[in-house]
């Protein structure tokens, strides 16, 4: 009974497929109700659909390398639309690809502007209080948050290609920056702190630009989704805990961010007495904001959540102003500098002892900012189905931060919460960011003095309400359900952030992500196959208890490409299957294994170490008087087997179209015990 | 015309396979000449061999984790033979597994000893001159090489499980150690240099022990074979160049190891005049050694190569002694301390400023030593077909170096060349190492004064002759033929070593190896499939130009597990195939793509990011009014699809047994343009 495994046909070279069909008289399996002409071949000798396979066309080395480079760095074919264009057209296209606003701007119209105006105003009302609060997270004076929300969105609007992202300072990056900067310089003691912040922002921008230009954007994919979920949740809790200072009106507060130091700080301060007015303001507005957030989850009422922070600020400021609660110990903002961003070009450290720490902080915060912005961009791009060029986005974000660092901004990126509001408010293009930017400009020029009496407690509530959304318990549960290793990565990053620091959490997240990749390539799966009764199908005997092994033959499937990182494991795992199986067979008085069939369908690629491993496997088996048979090696594998002369070593007559063919050939040759 | 792809059957759940067979009336393909009872089902309604697949048996979480840990760290099942044994027996087995000599020692006999004696004497005669020479490479006095060849092989003989490895100092590790140590301390100025060498040796041993005990031995697999080939060749050339000092009798020689500094040093010294007597000795013995090596390649004459170095030493020493050539500027060894190893336990830095550099140098040299020893162990184990437990080997090597560091040895490991001689001389067990060790002991106690007149030039010749074997041009050519990327790794490591330093070369080797792994998991292959005319086989249209696309349907195969590192790429690549294809089809007035079939046979695993990617792919396609169809997802993928509810989102009726089934179902539904 000989079948031909059709699915396996592509892996065979003409000589071999002919050989197999000649030798075995393999016939094509056909559906007896077949509707097309195939049925006429049923009794024929020709094999109508074993096509000549042939080695894949031999590629010129130059093209081979070109293809590899293209697929690695230009997989999105960024220059595709430059093809077959005149030179002047190419220049226009190039200009437009750097400044997409000149592309979509041509089709801009009043009805689009209506949507952008409304959403721009909405995110402005949301961002102004958040800006002030986030600047405090980064240990910067409040106006720097507003500065960042003025320049950065303007630059992005001209260069970015996401239509929905809302640009500005965000909580996690502010915390990360604040924590790393104050490890270097005490924020209260020196103007150098501010200068280092600009330096870090500058290098964050340079990092993003470099990744974009060098088309290394894929590097951010190495921070796995699971790790980000844990990192974000940990950062959210850390940020929320930091706000206890403002919310409870504590004066002496720890500088550490880990949960133990913070809780100790909170309890120690308890017997100094907390300020009840502060707590009253903080807790009541926090309740208000959280309820508003809950209501805003319905798409219809999204504006409730959007205007709640601004409403809180206005109400609480008014309340403090009329009650003069600040005289009773309620801490207030006190002073926001009026006027537009001053230049900060001369403030950046381009030399001196802070340069290297500026670069380090810049690279880390730039990468994190990038991760957040790209994740947001991708989410909304896939919701509205437009393509986003990750590398071009990075160039836009990088330019934005470089320009920002010269104009008193700190690291800006896309904000999850504000982008969602932007989307729900019906934004159409990046003009929403321009509208927001103009509103922030007006705020800076006109109404900053009005924030004087804004209580810090309400800013703390705004931050807490905003970061609650970063804790995604559903996602964590899904991770647990789908992939336990992902869950471990998530929890590791989470605990790292809350018990140590943001940087340690980040390090754990990256380390676990890498460990997962390494594990994946080091320990591929293997399975022993058995025959499903009454069929010629060979399946994993653990998954199919009914599958039975063939006497004298052991069939092992390797479920991965074989590279240097796993070649030894694969070889030794196969030999261990053989040893274990032989021990069991001897015990049960069955014939010992005389043929080892390696099912190679899932082996999509192999490198020189893999070839060595197969060579050694062959030799080890020879010593044990076991014949090595290969079933269905793929095209790339066959090319390399031939290049390394391994096909001759193993013998072409030991390489089969399918497991079934191999068993059919050797099953009858097995010697009885 | 409907076929059932049998090979794909394992990926399906009962509901689905039943559904498919019900809906499509799928019938089993049968060989019309079938010899068994299957043919009786040909017209029947039963499906004798579409077995109920069922989700793979749901595993208890504990077992799932246990299995993963076991497969990662205990893949060699090291405790297998402890099973079902009494406690005292377990103790004996445990003791034997730590000291294998008590296992194989029981069966040791005189005939085995004969082989071991001969090979032990042979490698002793080879190692004594090498030891003296290699100690100089590490900038240590000559006796330390001999010390290392006395203690280390003894310890290994008791604990190691390789029967063929010859233990002692080796060229590459000596060079690496010498180069890293002298970056910290000037070797000539201070006793601290020696102390740091012992410290590094101690921590090299600790590193090896730790890797073995923690079962992290697989980490050394990450240094790819290709990188090692390049690194070794580079190190060999660097070592050979260093010997120009001794060979040409140059007095002022550079401390750098890169080729440019060395060549400059050589040419600068030329006009001071080289010492012709030194050159005469060096060149003539080098010629002799290389010829002997060439002759020794024939297995019958291996002893020619084995005794040549000792012969050279004796002849040259005698020659210098009678001619008193040392008075004419021929540099000689002058002094080797007589007597057995002194204790060095109190010399190791356990604190102070050199501790951290000692640890760093120890970890690096320990890893390199390990790589070399494990590679040798594996090679010979597969030649004689015995299993080697990599982790246990590491424990043995680690203990050996820790003990060595306490007894004035520096880092020892297995030597490629001496192990090969050992094997060819017919060694049977590690007793050969004991024999060698005893000979070295006698040398230390009795004849070291005789080496006084040994010219350094002959030691240089011995080193050059030994390291020439590390340059494996054939391996490099094979790398080029099989895998271009491997070749780049090889060349990168090679140039790194010869143009910069051993450490830089090593760093390049590791970096390229990692880059390859990252590339592999970041940019998996995808292919568009077409139908081979007259068949139901779907194959890569680039490989099979005859394959034709189905109107209105695009079939894409993903050739890798989908993880966070490639999920976005896979998603965007599939969408790009769709965009490109649609553009081409519109141009040719063909119907636009209405169904996208993703062939998932090679997707062996998926994680949460992969699930997200498929979710987003589904949503993007929905926006474009394209239906997503999956063909043949594997069992693990299906479990995760179900856990994440993705099967419901995509629709169970969109998941098919094979591409052919899917095309059969939707091919007729395609709307004409």
From TrEMBL, chains A, B:
One GO term describing the cellular component: membrane
One Gene Ontology MF term: secondary active sulfate transmembrane transporter activity
Membrane topology: Multi-pass membrane protein
Keyword Signal: no
Compartment list: Membrane
InterPro entries, per database record: S04_transporter_CS, SLC26A/SulP_dom, SLC26A/SulP_fam, STAS_dom, STAS_dom_sf
SUPFAM superfamilies documented for this protein: SpoIIaa-like
Keywords: Membrane, Transmembrane, Transmembrane helix, Transport
Domain STAS: start-end pairs: 543-666
Domain of life where this protein originates: Eukaryota
Transmembrane segments: 165-181, 193-214, 226-244, 274-292, 301-322, 359-381, 393-417, 423-444, 456-480, 486-515
Keyword Membrane set for record: yes
PANTHER family: SULFATE TRANSPORTER (PTHR11814)
Stated family: Belongs to the SLC26A/SulP transporter (TC 2.A.53) family.
Protein name: Sulfate transporter 1.1-like protein
Species of the source: Quillaja saponaria (Soap bark tree)
